[in-house]
Here is the input.
Amino acid sequence: KCPVFKEDGDAWETAPFGERRGTYTHKGVDIVRHAGCNTTATVTAIADGTVIGVRTTVTGVNHAANVEGNYVAIDHGGGMVTKYFHLRYGSIPAAIRKGAKVKAGDTVGYMGNTGDSYGAHLHFQVEQDGKPIDGCVIPADAAPCRHRVEAVIR
Here is the structure.
């Protein structure tokens, strides 16, 4: 089970942390979870914390502005922050607002396709002291292109 999704089932990494993309480096990991034909999955906080940022107004794909799409950012203390990008429009619960306390496993939204996105997925980003770090561990025996993702706070 991938800890960022509520539902059981496989999740796949579609773009790794640190991947070069033209002039910039990918600062998180892109994860997709398919449940049959449904590409929607419930995204959950991976640890207790305080919401420090939320955007709920992006209705679809926009490659020029609001590239994160709809998102939630959570401060877990000790300089650790997690960010959940490209959430589906209308999926972020009303209780998830700046200053709100969340517990591990609380729903923060649904995987979506908003902002600078080319398909439904979650961009999951972990930062330590303001610097992006690799927040995912991929088992060495994972099949190529079908990596099981296990998100961890280190």
About this structure: Residues 137-154 have pLDDT under 50 and may be disordered. The longest strand covers residues 70-77. The CA atoms of residues 13 and 31 lie 5 Å apart. DSSP finds no helices and 14 strands in the chain.
